[in-house]
Amino acid sequence: MFDAIQAFLSGFLYDWLAITITLVLQAVAVILPIMLVVAWLTYAERKVIGFMQVRMGPNRVGPLGLLQPIADALKLMTKEVIFPAQSNKYLFIIAPVLAIAPAVAAYAVIPFSDGMVVTDINAGVLYVLAVSSILVYGTIVAGWASNSKYAFLGALRGSAQKISYEIAMGFALVTVLMIAGTMNLTEIVNGQQGGILNWYLLPLLPMFFVYFISGLAETNRTPFDVIEGEAEIVAGFHVDYSGMTFGVFMLAEYAMMILISFMTSIMFLGGWLSPFEGIPGLEALFSWVPQLAWLSIKVAFLLFVFLWLRATFPRYRYDQLMRLGWKVLIPLTIVWVFVVGAMKYFDFGPWFN
Amino acid sequence: MSFEQFIFYVLAAIAIISGLMMITVKNPVKAALWLVLAFISTAGLWIMAQAEFLGLVLILVYVGAVMVLFLFVVMMLDINMSILKEGFTRYLPIGALAAVAIFALIYMVVGPDHFGLDKVAAPDMKPAGYSNTTEIAIPLYTEHAYAFILAAVLLLVGIVAAIALTLRRRPTGAVLYQDIDKQNKTLAKDRFEMVKMDAVVEKAVVENEEEDKK
């Protein structure tokens, strides 16, 4: 579809201008739905946690409170943006941009269903890892530019935590790459064809948990949200942000949560593939379900787990958090890389096509 | 101007400007951030040269890990710029001389005499299915496997040396350590003891009250 638009535009525009416009259109086509999901994810979070704590959650704006995210967005946009005295103005404004740009840019390689992807590059996994590793700059720059001790402490905690868990996350993905034999996300999903038993979930079950736990730490979600521990450091790195600058940090956090859910579904849960493939009766029964719907169901479930964990667990103490990352998850992943290597070498297991 | 050229010039301009800003800006934190921008634009240039593995690893390793740790250190240091700038004019001639010498050397090696389409043929455009990752991986793990392992061991030695230099175990009692493994393995019965006691009978109190009334 976008090729046709580009061909049409280059008929009467400069070539580079036509390509730029097409790229912008593609970006909007991906980012707009993601931002809408982010908006109603905040609503879902408040509702889910509300019900788990026997409360109602938001129920005033619109039916069942469904318009609450719009009201929140309007409120944030009309609020004044306050610049702290002595803060570094440029970096103070750039920090939220640095936080949200990588979270959104990573969606460029996520396949939403077979062929429905902005750019189908060979090094897709590496791209997602590289782009999400830039994410930490939003936190650091925000903490430093605010010129506040609390913000600075939050930024230091956050950056150390994110770098630590990125290693475990990278190793967990290495095991997936070893089995799939490719870094192309579409091919990784296609390698999991053949029903729930052929997903990488079962042979890599420990890595699935390691990846998801690292994802929790990477997005600063409970129980790893020491970065904004309101009891100790008020609200962490974004304590001095107000109005929409604060809102952008929230957008980035939720966009990153959705990204982690997408990556987990694609890597371990068979992406857009139906779980009933190869089962005689059920396969035909569910063949009408579109691929995008299967992926959405998996992503929605993982997002629910994010919210569920938030309602369930208390916050980790900082040294325990670091111990979990360095002394539990990283050794586990290194051992599992060798295990998967041996499994692959001896052709062990029925999972490898 | 084709789209690739447009992107190339944008990225190259960003790389040069951020490199210049990195060495001229006064604040060390800002200098580190400009260096990050230079890395990112250079990674973009590498990806344009069809070396996407190198470009992405540059971002992953240098931008995502090394520069973050660097920023960490720079942020927490209290650098007094006036002391650092002492003797600037005194060393300026030597510095300028060194700079000119290095520039001349670089010019002799990579000057315009050695480059240009008449000297070096334009690189082939790789076919659509070309994977830079595979191209790097195959010689790395076959031809150069020995050197590759050696480099890994060298890095490991570096890590061990750094840990050995900074590890400081003080005698227990001089300072309180938290043993998290011990804390996690603690059970309720280690901290909390159930004691069985006979119920206290308060008969006598009632009799006393009755005596008081009399």
Give an overview in words.
- The complex is a heterodimer of chains A (353) and B (214).
- Chain A is built from 14 helices and no strands.
- With 353 residues, chain A is an all-alpha fold.
- Chain A has one domain.
- The model of chain A has no long low-confidence stretch (mean pLDDT 85).
- Chain B has three domains: 1-83, Four Helix Bundle (Hemerythrin (Met), subunit A), CATH 1.20.120.1200; 87-123; 133-169.
- In chain B, 69% of the residues lie in helices and 0% in strands.
- Chain B is built from ten helices and no strands.
- Chain B has helices at residues 3-24, 28-48, 52-76, 81-84, 88-110, 132-141, 145-166, 180-185, 188-191, 203-213.
- The mean pLDDT of chain B is 83.
- Chain A binds chain B through residues 15-16, 19-20, 91, 121-123, 126-127, 129-131, 133-134, 136-137, 140-141, 144, 152, 156, 159-160, 163, 166, 183, 319-320, 323, and chain B through 1-3, 6, 29-30, 33, 36, 40, 52-53, 56-57, 59-60, 63-65, 68-69, 71-72, 75-76, 131-133, 178, 180, 184.
The gist of it:
Chain A has 353 residues and is an all-alpha fold.
Domain unit count of chain B: 3
Output the radius of gyration of chain A: 21 Å
How many H/I helical runs of chain A?
Answer: 14
CATH class of the largest domain in chain B: Mainly Alpha
Distance between the termini of chain B: 115 Å
CATH fold naming of the largest domain in chain B: Four Helix Bundle (Hemerythrin (Met), subunit A)
The coarse silhouette of chain A is globular
Secondary-structure blueprint:
The complex is a heterodimer of chains A (353) and B (214).
Chain A: H1 2-9, H2 15-52, H3 68-78, H4 89-105, H5 124-134, H6 136-145, H7 149-180, H8 185-190, H9 205-218, H10 230-233, H11 243-268, H12 280-285, H13 291-312, H14 318-345
Chain B: H1 3-24, H2 28-48, H3 52-76, H4 81-84, H5 88-110, H6 132-141, H7 145-166, H8 180-185, H9 188-191, H10 203-213
Helix pairs in contact in B: 1-2, 2-3
